[in-house]
Amino acid sequence: AQSVAQPEDQVNVAEGNPLTVKCTYSVSGNPYLFWYVQYPNRGLQFLLKYITGDNLVKGSYGFEAEFNKSQTSFHLKKPSALVSDSALYFCAVRDILAGGYNKLIFGAGTRLAVHP
Amino acid sequence: DGGITQSPKYLFRKEGQNVTLSCEQNLNHDAMYWYRQDPGQGLRLIYYSQIVNDFQKGDIAEGYSVSREKKESFPLTVTSAQKNPTAFYLCASNMGRGTEAFFGQGTRLTVV
User: Residues A63-85: what's their mean pLDDT?
Assistant: First the structure.
């Protein structure tokens, strides 16, 4: 079965420093990977995705993610964190179901806290 | 503006009562989904639908029901059979295979 793991419940970083939010995955076949961000009491906002191509994917708000097939990882990164980046971040992988249906499987989420 | 609209934003349910959460999208997306979010557990799939008049159970469908009579609408009913319905419910849609999903702003359901 497909799965994703986010090993850190919370990541703390100082404003202006680089940030990394970790994600590892387990899939059969080629992975379709996604990152989403959630602010309090709001829905999820799409940040970026990897389907194929360059291992470094650039997304919204200055975020990027690096796909590493050998380590089965898809870590989210940003060169310089902002206080406004503080939120809950979810990694997700696509799961193909019978009949051509597909769904997203989400990790448990990582809370990012950026301190001034 | 295109998007997904969930209503209401907050909902209170009495014991033994059925309630319906609304989800409407004007993105012309084929697929729609309902997720439940509990603290520390990420999102879990309740039901999904790829086309009108067809839907499938997700991982935690017990105590829930859905309908898909129109492409743009995918309402979720939380029945009295759902023993622990207090949660944040998120509706999403996408074009299908491999495309990113767009989410509504969520409905927070509380049992009183």
Answer: 97
